[in-house]
Every structure is written in C-alpha cells, then in structure tokens.
Amino acid sequence: MKTMILLLVMLTGCCTMAGAQVLISLVFGKKLNTDKLEFGLMVAPGAVSLTGMNGKYKPALDLGLYFNFKVSENLFLHPEAIPKSAFGTKQLPVYATGNANIDTLFGNGYVQKNIKGISLPLLIHYRIKGLLFAELGPQVDWLLKTKDVFKTETNGNPLNYTINTNHSVTHFGIGAVAGLAYKLRKDKGLGIGIRYCFGMTDMIKNVSGSQRSQAWFCTISIPIGAGAAKNTTNTH
C-alpha cells in the first residue's frame, strides 16, 4: 500500500490536474465504492456567462470528482470537487487598454473573458421517481486565473490580444446549483443530468452594477471501480 501511495504522489506531480483526477480515481475507485458510497468522475460540457455585462454564453467544460453518500432510500448527499471549473462570457464590447495601437487595431472587435477556478458543490440528491433525482445545494468557487482576450480579424485572418486581469475579479464566491440527474441503471452505473449554476457574489470589481456567474451544464457521472463493489442495493 505504501508503494502504491508513493507511486501515486510521484505520478501526480508529473501530470496535469485533470490527469491526476483520473489517476486517483483508478487507484482508489474500488476502495471508495460500497453499498452506501459511490465515487467517480464527473464530466460536464456546458455554457457560461456573466450577468450585467451584455455578453453572450461561451462554451465551457468542467472536470471533477464526486462522492455519493446514501442517507436513505430516497436521499443522497452528493459533494463534488471540480478543480477545472470554467467561468466567463464572450462578445463583450472592447475597452481602452492604454495602448493606442492596440485600441485602434481591435476597435471593431470584441472581448472574451476567460476565468478558471476551483468549484466545490455540496448537493443533495432526492429521488423524484425511479432513477430520476432532483439536485440542489450551495457551491463555493475559488477563481484562480482571469484573462481578457481581445478578438478581431485582419485581412480575413483572426487576431487575438490577451490581457491578464486577475486583479479585477473577486477570488472567492458563493453560488447555488439546481438540476435533474438520471441513472441509466439501478446499480452504480453511468448517470446523466442537466444543471443550472447561478452565482450570488459580484465577480468583477472594476465594473459598476452586479456581475454574477450563470451557467448551464450537461453532467455525465462515471463511477470508478463500482463493478467490484459487493452487495450493491438500489444506490444512486
């Protein structure tokens, strides 16, 4: 066991965060799946935006891990850890950068705001009927990297200019999650769902009004090592 843990630490240091998630799941998945507990990977393609900025939704992809604790036959505690969480918006009006050449070059373009962070949803799953569940709960967000990407075209070719804007965001935020989840079979099998995430914290410091995150995601939950779990009974 000590050798396995040492190998895990060494490999994790050499991998990206997403790769580390998969590695941890593969090593410990069987040990973390029991008749009362499910553990796995969560993949969530979707679209994100910010309120109060006149932008549009932009594509996003969240990658994370989840636990599913069985409280009763109809109630489950469902915490998630999403170290690759996406926020932002696109098609924002350009603004002055302080560089006259850049301002002229991108005057007819637009700005895309890319925000990367870590999200920790703490959800409750409640069985509506059969294998259909409602999900609801708070989410804590830690915003790590923010970039404004100016976009335009010159002679038919795309042209980008990126500005680091970490100083302009509130680095910690609180939000809420609501959605539906459906298991494709009674035991620990693949799950799919749809969820809406809405922020309660003003994320942008240097813009008047309130700019809060909003997002739609299609979720895919993949149990790891569940096939080895014994005495599986109508879990979620």
Automatic annotation (TrEMBL):
Entry-linked InterPro entries: Beta-barrel_OMP_2 (IPR025665)
Signal peptide (residue range): 1-20
Stretches assigned to the Outer membrane protein beta-barrel domain: 64-204
Lineage: Bacteria, Pseudomonadati, Bacteroidota, Chitinophagia, Chitinophagales
Protein name: PorT family protein
Recorded superkingdom: Bacteria
Pfam families attached to this UniProt entry: OMP_b-brl_2
Keyword set, alphabetical order: Signal
Source species: Deminuibacter soli
